[in-house]
Task: inverse folding
């Protein structure tokens, strides 16, 4: 893992076409701006975790319903 310190308006470049810029700093919160091609999907880490947990719960629920339905048939 690469760890960098950046100040307001400083950037980090990833490859030739992704730029991450520190846009604002308030207390312990840092706002970042990300410039990237539209073809690159950018998602927050906690959103991915939430989606993964929801999908896992849905699979378990589906398996439970399937078992109940199978027993009735």
Result:
């Amino acid at each position: 893992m690469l760890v960098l310190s950046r100040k307001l308006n400083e950037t980090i470049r990833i490859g030739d076409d992704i730029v991450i810029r520190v846009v604002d700093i308030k207390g312990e919160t840092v706002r970042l701006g990300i410039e990237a091609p539209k073809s690159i999907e950018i998602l927050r880490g906690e959103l991915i975790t939430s989606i993964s947990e929801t999908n896992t719960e849905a699979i378990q629920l589906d398996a439970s319903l399937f078992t109940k339905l199978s027993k009735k048939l």
Observations:
- The chain has two domains: 1-39, 43-73.
- The chain has a mean pLDDT of 87.
